[in-house]
Amino acid sequence: MSLEKNIKIIFENIKLENNIDFFKLWKETYKIVNPSKSLDLNNMLTAIRINKSFYLCKYFIFAKDLKGDFLECGVLKGFSSYLLRSLEDQLFKDTINNYFLIDSFEGLSDFLDEDKSLNPDIIQNKKGDLKANIEDVKVLFNQFKNVNIIKGWIPKVFESLDEKNKYKFVHIDVDLYQPTFDSLNYIYDKVVKGGIIITDDYRSPSFPGNQKAWEKYFNSKNIRSLSLPSGQAVVIKE
Ligand SMILES: C[S@@+](CC[C@H](N)C(=O)[O-])C[C@H]1O[C@@H](n2cnc3c(N)ncnc32)[C@H](O)[C@@H]1O
Question: I need a labelling partner for 90 at 20 to 30 A (CA). Which of 26, 36, 215, 223 fits?
Answer without folding.
Answer: 36
